[in-house]
Amino acid sequence: MDCFAVSVCKGLASPHGYVPRYIKPMLMALLFGVFHACMPLIGYFTGSFFVSFFERFAPWIALILLGFIGGKMIYDSLHDDDNAAHLADFSFVGLLSLAFATSMDTLATGVIFIPHPEVLWLAVAIIALTCFLFSMTGFILGHIVGTRLRINVNILGGVILILIGIKIFLEGIL
After folding, report:
1. Would you kindly state where each structural domain of the chain is located, as residue ranges?
2. Is 151 in a helix, a strand, or coil?
3. Maximum Cα–Cα distance across the chain
4. What is d(CA 140, CA 145) in angstroms, rounded to the nearest whole number?
5. Which residues make Cβ contacts (< 8 Å) with residue 169, sequence separation at least 6?
6. How far does the chain reach from its first CA to its final CA, in angstroms?
7. Residue 113: pLDDT over 50
8. Which of 8, 3, 25, 4 lies closest to 144, judged by CA?
9. What confidence category does residue 5 fall into, taking pLDDT thresholds of 50, 70 and 90?
10. DSSP assignment of 57-126
11. Which pLDDT belongs to residue 51?
12. Rounded distance, CA 119 to CA 134, Å?
């Protein structure tokens, strides 16, 4: 659901005149799916030692990354008059950081497969496919809604990303 929400934000933030070619949104969805597939595998193969280390820091990492990206979206929308900031939102490094931040909480999921290795690959495939489909759907819905709204959707998208970071942080520390 975090990927869906982030994808909605990316769709909201895409320029109003932008006709999505779906290459960049597909890259985003693919990265989200790959990261969400890799994290449980890392959790499975590294066992509880590595996962317990990341479980302590994952909420902080997600908060910092999503807070920074959301803050940058808000800053750019208030200080940039052209669409360059919008288009830069799909930079490969930016997409990688979003994929990493939203997938941190799935790292611990791999540990639950240690006693059930026979379902690991099927579960990873389902996670990746679901994440990909939710991300594409979220982007499309966000873009449709964003083209109809008359408000600064970059500010809305930035606030949503910051709130997602806070949500992941609070879930991780409580």
Report:
1. 2-7+21-173
2. coil
3. 55
4. 9
5. 59, 60, 62, 63
6. 19
7. yes
8. 8
9. confident
10. HHHHHHHHHHHHHHHHHHHHHHH--STHHHHHTT-HHHHHHHHHHHHGGGGGGGGGGTT-GGGHHHHHHH
11. 65
12. 22
Query: Would the pTM of this model clear 0.85, i.e. be above it?
Result: no
The pLDDT assigned to 78 comes to 80
Mapped onto helix, strand or coil, the DSSP state of residue 2 is helix
Residue 139 near residue 29, CB atoms below 8 Å: yes
CA distances from 18 to 26, 58, 88 (A): 15, 34, 13
Q: What distances in angstroms separate CA 117 from CA 43, 45, 109, one per listed residue?
A: 12, 10, 13
Cβ-contact 37, 124 below 8 angstroms = yes
Structure tokens at 66: 């999503």
Mean pLDDT score of the chain, rounded to an integer? 81
Structure tokens at 67: 């807070």
Phi, psi torsion values for 82, nearest 5 degrees: -105, 180
Asked which of 5-14, 22-31, 151-160 is least confident by mean pLDDT, the reply is: 151-160
Give 49-68 pLDDT, tens digit per residue.
Answer: 766 677 777 788 888 888 88
Q: Please compute the mean of the pLDDT values over residues 23-52 and round it to a whole number.
A: 86
In 3D space, the residue among 38, 31, 91, 100 whose CA is nearest the CA of residue 65 turns out to be 100
